[in-house]
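Late entry, evening session. Most of the bench is empty. Finally got around to the prediction I had been postponing all week. Sequence below, unchanged from the version circulated by S.P.
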Amino acid sequence: MEDTPSRFFNPVCNRSGKTSPYHHLYIDEKEFQVNPKLLKQLNLAACPDRTPEGRALYVYLRLCQVLQYDEGIFYREHRKNPNDNYQDSFQVVEQVTAETPVTCFNFSRIAVNLLNQIDGVRAMIIAVGKNRGHFRFGYYTDKVAVDAEPTMTQRVEPVSGHSGENFNDMARMKLGIKPRGLNVFQGKDLMSELMVKILPDLLMANHTSLRDYQHWLRQVHTQDQINCFDIKTMVANLKQQGIGGAALLQFLVNVNYTFVGANYRIMRVGKVSADGEVSPQLLMRRNQQIYQIDLTQITVDDLSVAEFFTLMRQKSLILVDVDTVEKRDDNYHIFVDGLLNTERTTASLPDWEV
């Protein structure tokens, strides 16, 4: 058999290249067209390298930079949204633009659709899990074979005394951080060269003020400096740069744990509207001060302790539904521990404990 990259890519293998019963080739029964507005937003013609490998890499990087992740999937038991499963999501794939949040299902569909339009590139969707609960994708050419994971977080090992960072590539490309979700089975040297050629100009599209802010955070050493960490100012800065949704969530969580010594307790919640819609929120608490960050509107509101418990009891705030009851219980107790007037009674806890 000819020793070509296609030999090194198998959709039924895990990311280490080992055959797995939980990885499957997935093909939709119907074809679809990528939204023309999205194509214009991606501007793929601007790719500085016209080889199949360069164009394929550019597709991945631009999709990560342009598409928004739908954090609402973590509250899918409380909402009815086509993004929540692989079958229904196909019904809205042609509607996707930069303004339309997606999950792994339609990100992978759109990527594979665009990649297969490039001469010399063969791409495919990989369904993960017995019930196809997650999609990623892979592609190969005569020179490279690549497994792509844009939506799962990729850990960076600790550096300079700080703990490691966790971002997915959709957040990385918006925050000006080098992506880490590509697993190259073949053609590593070529892919490294292409990354050097293509990536810097894309990352430069991010405002330098964000990179300067990250640099400042890395220099934080004293408690006085940590106490100057201002959530409202930072969120306002990120909003000006168009950073919201999952990218905002990941940035705030990583800033807290990586740079300021976990000075805030954090809990993800969903805000339930009168018509039953759920909007993702992040609660950050230090002492008795609770901040409620709306990840979609990119706003920060003060939340009193009494208001917090009232909203939880009324189910106006709900916890993520992808965790086990035990994990939700632990996360909740960690967040509320030490709040004034907190008693270990069912009155203070969400309904699953009543």
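Two things to note before I forget:
Residues 224-353 form one domain.
The chain has a mean pLDDT of 84.
Will write this up properly tomorrow.
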